[in-house]
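Dear colleague,

Thank you for sharing your sequence with our group. We've completed the structure prediction you requested, and as agreed, I am returning the results in plain text so they can be pasted directly into your records. Please verify that the sequence below matches your submission; if there's any discrepancy, let me know and we will rerun it promptly.
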Amino acid sequence: MVEPKIGSYVEALSFPGQSIEELLNSNGMTQRELAARIGFSTKHINEVIQGKRDISPLLASKLANVFQPSAQFWNNLQSIYNAEKQRIEDEEGITEEEKDIAKRLPYNKLVSWNYLEECNSIVDRVIKLRKFMGLSDIRNAPAFMKNISIASANSSLAFRKSESLKIDDYVMTIWLKMCTLSFNQNVPEFDKSKLRESLPLIKSQISGSDINTSVNTIKEILSNCGVSFSIIHNLAGAPVQGFIKFQNNKAVLCLTLRQKFDDILWFTLFHEIGHLLLARQCKETIVDFSSDSGLALSNEDEADKFAQDILIDKKRFEVFSARRFISEAEVIEFAKEEKVPPSVVVGRLGHSSPNYFSRMANLRQRINWD
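Please find the predicted structure tokens below.
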């Protein structure tokens, strides 16, 4: 059996005008008589019946005066037809290239994280990905990313990208959408002063025994400051550690867990809070790539210094790290004094002497986010 072309499905649709014809036949009325009753030309009525014209709101209201169905019935009939016709035309426009791109995108992960619903066909997958990504064609992702990749003083998106960075434009488009979907509209307006005042309270939460409880409490604290905070799943091809966007005088802050250790999570959190506090204006959006990418934002050093100084006192750390040999017990004691998890001290020591990561690996908590 030869499969019919998609275009034939459009032709097979029952268009709204056929319902008018059925009513004419059941009421023994001609097209000419209907035209005279409602003040339209016979040609107009015939073209609607033939599917060459839509049922306009005006025609719907006129038909409601002649036949039993209401104007809303006729308008709905036309809307349903238009939607079904558009769906079929969208499917007809799907190319093999677009299907191939959709096949390699992390659709199943998006389903498991409740962003999308399961589907049984590649065509349905393409349609759902188009809508999720906000693109009329998945192939438009590179052009979309190129359009937002240049930062300027007047740009609404301060997005820094390097040619050497392994970015998948299609995955990045998905990841950006995941971030924007996390925005909690109920947070108050962003209050930079209140956020700065809340820093000690936020820091006090990171030493908790349950990291999920700590994150949820920090989320509430940030919410009171006008910051919608979320942790977004990491996707291969989107080597990012943070996302900041100012929207309607509110702030969106998202983190990923690419390296899944608690010390990296806490440092990244304060690093991104540093960006929030250091932002020159509350209009830009910042996509902050991971530190291992070799790419830095213009104020990256400032944000790093901010996070370091908030977590551990600079002068006390200099004295502590100058010791010839530092034991686990000393790290634990110093962490208590600084009111941070021991892993944060290990992370700070490991930044200059990587052997600490292996020697004191048991002091770092691995986070299973997936």
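Summary note from our side: Residues 1-10, 149-164, 292-298 have pLDDT under 50 and may be disordered.

Kind regards,
the structure core
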